[in-house]
Amino acid sequence: xxxxxxxxxxxxxxxxxxxxxxxxxxxxxxxxxxxxxxxxxxxxxxxxxxxxxxxxxxxxxxxxxxxxxxxxxxxxxxxxxxxxxxxxxxxxxxxxxxxxxxxxxxxxxxxxxxxxxxxxxxxxxxxxxxxxxxxxxxxxxxxxxxxxxxxxxxxxxxxxxxxxxxxxxxxxxxxxxxxxxxxxxxxxxxxxxxxxxxxxxxxxxxxxxxxxxxxxxxxxxxxxxxxxxxxxxxxxxxxxxxxxxxxxxxxxxxxxxxxxxxxxxxxxxxxxxxxxxxxxxxxxxxxxxxxxxxxxxxxxxxxxxxxxxxxxxxxxxxxxxxxxxxxxxxxxxxxxxxxxxxxxxxxxxxxxxxxxxxxxxxxxxxxxxxxxxxxxxxxxxxxxxxxxxxxxxxxxxxxxxxxxxxxxxxxxxxxx
Length: 416
Description:
- 34% of the residues lie in helices and 37% in strands.
- It is α+β, with helices and mostly antiparallel strands.
- It folds into 4 domains: 34-44 and 314-411, conserved putative lor/sdh protein from methanococcus maripaludis s2 fold (Beta Barrel), CATH 2.40.420; 50-59 and 222-312, Elongation Factor Tu (Ef-tu), domain 3 (Beta Barrel); 61-85 and 192-221, CATH 2.40.50.100; 94-185.
- It has a 6-stranded antiparallel β-barrel with strand order 2-11-15-13-12-16.
C-alpha cells in the first residue's frame, strides 16, 4: 500500500512538472512571438500637394537713377516713405546746369540776330540786283558784265549766309533744349507710386553719371496691396504645378515672422527660364498674395504648399502601413513568403537602359503595392492599387480591404 501511494505521488509530481514545463514553454514561445502595431483603413479627405520654399518680392521694383552728375543738395525722402508719381525725391546742384541754360539762351539770341542782319543784307542785295537789271535794260553800256556778275554773286552769297544763319539758330535752339533738359534732370522724381525700400545716397554725396546711371532709390510698387512669392520648383513636380495652375487650385504658405498666420495665394506664372544647379533642374513659379496688412516684407522666406489634387470622403490607407515590410519569414504565411525574397518584383526600374515605354509601364506598376494584415499567427499580404496621397494617408483605389480593417504598421517594443 505504501509503495502504491509513493507511485501515485511520483506520478502526480511528474504531471505537475510536465504541465509546468509545457506552460513555461508556451509562455516563452508567446514571449518570442512579435507584437505588431496597427492602424485602420478609414474614410476621409486627401489633399495632395507640392511643398517648396520661396522669397517674398514686390510685384514691381522700380530703380530710380540720375542722368546727370553733381552734388546732392536736397534729399526729400527716407527709407519706407510712401511717394506718388512725380514727387521730388532728391535734387542735384543746379548752378552749372543753370549757367549752361543762360549761355545757350544768349547764343540763341545771337544766332537769331545774325539771321535778321543777314536777311536785311539779302534784301538790299536783291534790290541792287533789280536796279542793275533795269539800268542794263535801258543801256547796256551803263553796267559792265563783270559788275553785273558781282551784284548777282553778292545776292547768292547772302542767300547762302542766311541758310547758314538759320541752321545756326536751330543748332543753338537744340543746345538750349539739351541744357534745359539737363537742368530738369537735376530734380529726381518718382516715376511710380510706391514705397521707398532702398536709398543708396546721402545728403552732400556727389554723383558721377558719365559712365553709367547710378541707382539712387528702389521703389516697391503696390507693396501694400499685393506681393509676389518666387519659388523654385523641381522639374519632377512642375507638371503637377501646371495642372494646378490650369485648375486654379490655391496655394498656402507661412513665414517665420508670423508663425500663427496662414497666408493664401494663387499661382500667377510658371516661368520658362530653368535653372540647373548640380544637375538639379528647377523652374521659377510666381505666387501672388494679398498684403493689405503689410505683414509680408520683401526678402522674407516663405514655406509654400501648392495644392495639386483633392478628393473628399474616400477610402484611405495610413502611409505607415505602406512603409512596413516584414523582415522575418517566420512571421509571414508561406503563400506570401515569395514577396520577401524579391522574386515577385520587377527590376526593370533599376535598369538605366530601358526604353521610355518600359519606364512608363514601371511608373504605372509603382501604383500597385502590398500591405500586411495579421491573420491568425501569420502576416498576410494584400495587393492594393493606390491613388493620390498626402503626408499621412494614401487613396485606396482597389484592394480587398474594408473600412476599419487593421493594417500592420510596425513592431511593438518588447516589455522587459
